[in-house]
């Protein structure tokens, strides 16, 4: 997998959602943020925090079905 950065997070999450057919709401809940926050990140209106990069990266690496966040 490509290195996840603040600059590419939105495109990687968008592609992940489309490839795994997972809704924004479910992805947001899994990585511990609100749906509006994730929508802003996907749209490129805001940049991901360090924690968002960690959680999102882990989820994309192992897949949505296997991802269990440690909050």
- On the 0-100 scale, what is the average pLDDT? 90
The helix tally amounts to 4
Largest sheet: none
* H and E string: HHHH
CATH homologous superfamily? Answer: lambda repressor-like DNA-binding domains
CATH architecture level-2 label: Orthogonal Bundle
Rg estimate, integer Å: 11 Å
Looking at the structure, the CATH topology is 434 Repressor (Amino-terminal Domain)
Q: What spatial form do the alpha-carbon principal axes imply? A: globular
What's the quaternary structure here?
Answer: single chain
Overall number of domains: 1
| Binned strand content | under 5%
What fraction, in percent, of the residue positions are helical? 55-70%
Helix and strand composition category: mainly alpha
Spans where pLDDT lies below 50 across 5 or more residues: none
Alpha-carbon distance between the two ends: 23 Å
By DSSP, the count of extended strands is 0
Question: Can I get a quick summary?
Answer:
This protein has 71 residues and is mainly α. It has helices at 9-20, 24-31, 35-43, 50-62. The protein is globular.
Outline the fold blueprint.
Elements: H1 9-20, H2 24-31, H3 35-43, H4 50-62
Detailed description of the structure:
The chain is an all-alpha fold and 71 residues long. The protein has a single domain (9-62), classed as lambda repressor-like DNA-binding domains (434 Repressor (Amino-terminal Domain)). The protein is built from 4 helices and no strands. Helix 2 crosses helix 3. The longest helix is centred in the last third of the chain and has 13 residues, at 50-62. The mean pLDDT is 90.
């Amino acid at each position: 997998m490509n290195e996840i950065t603040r600059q590419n997070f939105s495109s990687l999450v968008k592609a992940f959602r489309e490839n795994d057919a997972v809704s924004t709401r479910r992805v947001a809940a899994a990585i511990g943020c609100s749906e509006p926050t994730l929508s802003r990140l996907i749209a490129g209106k805001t940049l991901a925090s360090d924690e968002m990069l960690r959680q999102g990266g882990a989820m994309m690496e192992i897949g949505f079905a296997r991802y269990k966040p440690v909050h």
